[in-house]
């Protein structure tokens, strides 16, 4: 196990990615399976506004929940793109880190 995976943040993020993979699997959620990068884009905007509202309200539990929703949409978009051979979450992570 990598040092990243041992870290609680890494473990939580790996769990999120496992959930996304499960939802997109052939026997996964029908709604999630039919989504495309394009159909997921409006959810990114919606969830970002909800995160903004939570931040402005100053309720940390709401901020945590809405930040997770944004992360889920980003992870889903990257997973869908990965399936199409376009890019993946690693590419997005490297791009911002670089």
How are the secondary structure elements laid out?
Layout: H1 3-6, H2 8-24, H3 30-34, H4 37-57, H5 60-83, H6 89-97
Structure in words:
The structure is a single chain. With 98 residues, the chain is an all-alpha fold. It has a single domain, classed as MazG-like (Helix Hairpins). It is 82% helix and 0% strand. The chain has helices spanning 3-6, 8-24, 30-34, 37-57, 60-83, 89-97. α4 (37-57) packs antiparallel against α5 (60-83). The longest helix has 24 residues, at 60-83. The relative contact order is 0.12. The model has no long low-confidence stretch (mean pLDDT 94).
What is the assigned CATH homologous superfamily?
A: MazG-like
Ends: how far apart? 25 Å
Individual helix count:
6
Please mark out the parts with pLDDT under 50 across 5 or more consecutive residues, or reply none: none
Please name the CATH architecture. Orthogonal Bundle
Main beta-sheet annotation? none
Q: Helix/strand-derived class?
A: mainly alpha
Strand content: under 5%
Shape: globular
Percent helix among the residues? Answer: over 70%
SSE series? HHHHHH
Beta strand count: 0
Q: List the domain count as a whole number.
A: 1
**Within the CATH hierarchy, at the fold level, what is the topology?**
Helix Hairpins
As a whole number of angstroms, the C-alpha radius of gyration is 14 Å
CATH class category: Mainly Alpha
